[in-house]
Amino acid sequence: DQAGLLVQELFLGRNMALISDCGTPVFSDPGAKLIKTCVDNDIKVVPIPGVSSLMTALSILDFKIENFYFAGFLPRESQQRKNELFRLKSIKSALIIMDTPYRLVKLLEEIEANFGKGCQITLTCDLTLPSESIFRGRIDAVRKKGGTRKAEFMLIIHNR
User: Fold this and answer.
1) At 28, is the secondary structure helix, strand, or coil?
2) Residues 6+ apart with CB under 8 A from 153
3) For 66-81, how does the pLDDT look when each residue is reduced to its tens digit (9 = 90+)?
């Protein structure tokens, strides 16, 4: 158990920082287990402000956002994904969806099939990296412009 080993190091007086490779620890990241182990052992956890892919993506939207629903990663299994997308379609806030880079093309296809070709989206790819790209507009147009790549991404379905 890596969390237990790290906590032992903390008890020995070492300082550590939990850093996520793409985003913020705990937020769609496995850091929660380490933090829980620290909290359970009365070890002080101090947040350090840093880049959050969610906040970065929200900060460049070209429409007013009053609220949003973070859907996170969709299930891997096809029927469960289909059921979740059906459920998400009923939410009338901006939707934030993430998935693994290799499922970007599939996700865009699924969103278009479930929400329609006219669905307005913002797709942010590889935020803060030299390959950063931001695509805005109807999902059918975004798919043609940038939906064939493999990238770390945030997909925002606009208010409907």
Assistant:
1) coil
2) 98, 99, 101, 104, 123, 124, 125, 126
3) 899 999 999 999 999 9
Tokens for 37, please give them.
């182990």
Q: Is 6 exposed, middle or buried (0-12, 13-18, 19+ CB in 10 A)?
A: middle
For the full predicted model, state whether its pTM sits above 0.90: no
Strands (DSSP E) contained in the chain are: 68-73, 94-98, 120-125, 133-138, 153-157
Phi, psi of 68 (to 5 degrees): -150, 160
Q: Is the dihedral of CA 74, 77, 79, 80 positive or negative?
A: negative
The rounded distance, in Å, linking the Cα atoms of 158 and 82 is: 20
Distances (CA, A) of 18 to 55, 57, 72, 78: 19, 22, 20, 33
Q: Strand 153-157 to strand 94-98: parallel, antiparallel, or no bridges (unpaired)? A: antiparallel
Q: How far apart are CA 20 and CA 30, in angstroms?
A: 9
Helix (H) or strand (E) holding 79, with range, is: helix 78-89
pLDDT in tens, 109-160: 999 999 999 999 999 999 888 989 999 999 999 988 876 778 889 999 997 6
